[in-house]
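STRUCTURE:
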């Protein structure tokens, strides 16, 4: 598989705690990286190097890809291969190689079953991820954030209470074409 530095964003969904090792793993499957901490989950499709490339899915220690990020700083594309003897291999376009230990004996949760089916009355809103990230930072310190979606063409409303004070925010949807 060919992974870029941006593809590593999936790692933010992995648990940083070692209480449940499988939740701090990155699942590598043909065409995707998957991470979860038990509360959030992210699956990101990854470009395959060769058409028909296949392998058995495996887990690697959750932060291993992040720890190898120095490789990504100097190379725009990097290859990740399943490897042998309990390892995976990262190889850069420049030829450098790093071995990452596979996480043996862990069973990654069956994550596909937790994605809910879309309801008939579901509303879909397209948002700019950079704007959403900026807005969510303004809610730092809130225990929960209430999100109200009235219509796909009006601003989405976010509300919370922090130390007894109300915090409100709006984010404009992207225009659906």
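SEQUENCE:
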């Amino acid at each position: 598989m060919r992974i870029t530095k941006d593809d590593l964003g999936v790692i933010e969904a992995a648990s940083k705690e070692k209480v449940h090792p499988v939740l701090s793993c990155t699942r590598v499957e043909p065409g995707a990286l998957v991470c979860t901490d038990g509360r959030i989950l992210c699956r990101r499709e990854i470009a395959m190097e060769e058409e028909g490339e296949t392998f058995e899915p495996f887990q690697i220690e959750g932060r291993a890809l992040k720890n190898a990020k120095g490789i990504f700083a100097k190379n725009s594309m990097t290859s990740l291969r399943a490897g042998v003897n309990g390892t995976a291999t990262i190889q850069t376009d420049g030829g450098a190689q790093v071995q990452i230990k596979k996480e043996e004996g862990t069973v990654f949760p069956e994550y596909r079953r937790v994605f809910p089916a879309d309801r008939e009355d579901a509303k879909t809103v397209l948002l700019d991820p950079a704007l959403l990230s900026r807005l969510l930072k303004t809610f730092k310190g809130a225990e929960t954030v209430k999100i109200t979606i009235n219509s796909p063409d009006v601003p989405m409303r976010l509300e919370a209470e922090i130390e007894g004070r109300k915090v409100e925010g709006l984010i404009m949807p992207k225009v659906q074409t």
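REMARK: The mean pLDDT is 81.
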